[in-house]
Design goal:
Elements (H helix, E strand, L loop, with lengths): L1 E5 L8 H15 L3 E5 L26 H10 L4 H14 L3 E4 L9 H13 L4 E5 L32 H5 L7 H16 L8 E4 L2 H7 L3 H4 L2 E3 L24 E6 L6 H10 L5 E6 L12 E3 L5 H10 L2 E4 L9 H8 L4 E4 L4 H4 L6 E4 L4 H12 L2 H11 L7 H13 L1
Helix pairs in contact: 3-4, 9-13
Length: 408
């Protein structure tokens, strides 16, 4: 089968890129022909035979003139259509699998695939994996600038995306929020997403939210992300001063990830050692809790070692997580997870067996749960044994199910 994987970033940048590259690698190994389409970038590591990519769009580093051209291109991209058509004509894919595409590539891609079908008479399935809430929320997160869950744009009523402008939901900027409102209103008004053949939801929670739109509800399919034990061997020798026993947080240091709440819990438990691995805007706040050792961003064997050696890990998110790889990685390495009861997190943790849940944003509840688990080594040791029996679909099982969706 000829499969075109589309993602705006074609270099390692986050979870969706990990998904795209691992999936493409496996499908290629199984004999399928796989090519990639997205933005050009100096670090691009995959590509296509037509050597066609859109020009890089960096909203944060753009000059005044570029920002003016970006304003239009975030809604409709003639360049994306033209470059994609070169790939479609050259590669002639049987499936176009969309991932993150809004703003940099735009739903113009869907228009071009439809035109390609019409011009050539060739079937070409359109499949989309929902890594975030971009189809129903202009800022993709269902989380406002005040650090609160926000569902005001859900539904199908006329003008439903106006709260994005009123709340300055995109980077706290009126201009960017207006553009987000226009983008969502324009493409939903054109019913563009009706043309997707399937929308893959990595969590039941994601499916539930997308299903609030009847158009999307007819397309959604629940298929949890694949998992794999990291290939790297655990090794923390390069990290100095690690405590023998600790509670681990690894991920982004930000409000929506619950770092503020975790900081309060750590301050209330001065005798419990915490290790934090990551980076982000709240990094400077961690010094307020002397029992938190910040080891910075870690990957490969060092991260594997940190996870394996932790008594348990904590996922204190305060926004609607989809299907966090951090939980899957932790459980697959035999480390229990204390997770917030929000979004797709409860779907991954077997409460009282492979970890426990606490009320998201509730520092007192988190503090009590950490203290109780920390002091009961027998309980978290049993959780560790249970984790080793946790089963998630590997890439083989996942790809098998995905190929059936492609063929429908």
């Amino acid at each position: 089968m000829r499969i075109l994987l589309v993602n705006k970033f074609l270099y390692p940048n986050g979870g969706s890129e990990t998904y795209v590259f691992e999936l493409g690698k496996y499908l290629t190994a199984q004999g399928h022909q796989v090519e990639y389409f997205g933005m050009e970038h100096p670090n691009r590591c995959v590509g296509n035979s037509a050597n066609a990519y859109t020009s890089t769009m960096d909203f944060h580093a753009a000059s005044g003139l570029k920002k003016l051209t970006y304003a239009y291109r975030t809604i409709y991209s003639k360049e994306a259509r033209q470059k994609l058509r070169l790939v479609l004509d050259s590669f002639q894919p049987e499936v176009v699998h969309l991932n993150n595409f809004n703003y940099q590539l735009t739903p113009s891609l869907i228009v071009e695939v439809l035109q390609y079908r019409k011009d050539t008479g060739k079937p070409c399935a359109l499949v989309y994996t929902a890594h975030d809430f971009q189809l129903i929320c202009p800022n993709h997160a269902l989380f406002d600038q005040q650090g609160r869950i926000c569902e005001r744009c859900l539904g199908t009523r006329k003008g439903r995306f106006l709260p994005c402008v009123k709340g300055k939901c995109i980077h706290g900027s009126t201009i960017r929020s207006v553009l987000g409102f226009l983008e969502a209103t324009y493409w939903n008004g054109r019913s563009i997403y009706e043309h997707l053949d399937a929308i893959i939801c990595p969590s039941k929670f994601m499916k539930q939210k997308l299903d609030t739109n009847p158009v999307l509800a007819r397309k959604t399919v629940f298929l949890r992300n694949f998992s794999a034990k990291p290939a790297a061997k655990g090794d923390t020798l390069s990290i100095e001063g690690l405590p023998e026993k600790y509670v681990l947080y690894f991920g982004r240091f930000s409000e929506e990830k619950g770092m503020g709440t975790l900081l309060k819990a750590a301050q209330a438990l001065p005798k419990v050692p915490f290790v934090a691995a990551g980076s982000g805007p709240l990094e400077g706040e961690l010094v307020k809790a002397p029992n938190i050792q910040n080891v910075g961003f870690q990957s490969g064997g060092a991260l594997v070692g940190l996870i394996e050696k932790a008594a348990f890990s904590v996922i204190p998110s305060e926004w609607f997580e989809n299907c966090p790889y951090s939980i899957i990685e932790s459980l697959m390495l035999g480390t229990p997870v204390l997770g917030a009861r929000i979004g797709g997190i409860p779907e991954l943790i077997d409460d009282g067996r492979t970890g426990e849940l606490f009320e998201s944003g509730n520092a007192a509840d988190l503090t009590a749960k950490i203290a109780a688990l920390w002091e009961n080594e027998g309980r978290y040791s049993q959780y560790r044994r249970n984790c080793l029996n946790t089963k998630f679909d590997g890439i083989e099982e996942y790809a098998g199910k995905l190929l059936k969706i492609y063929a429908q």
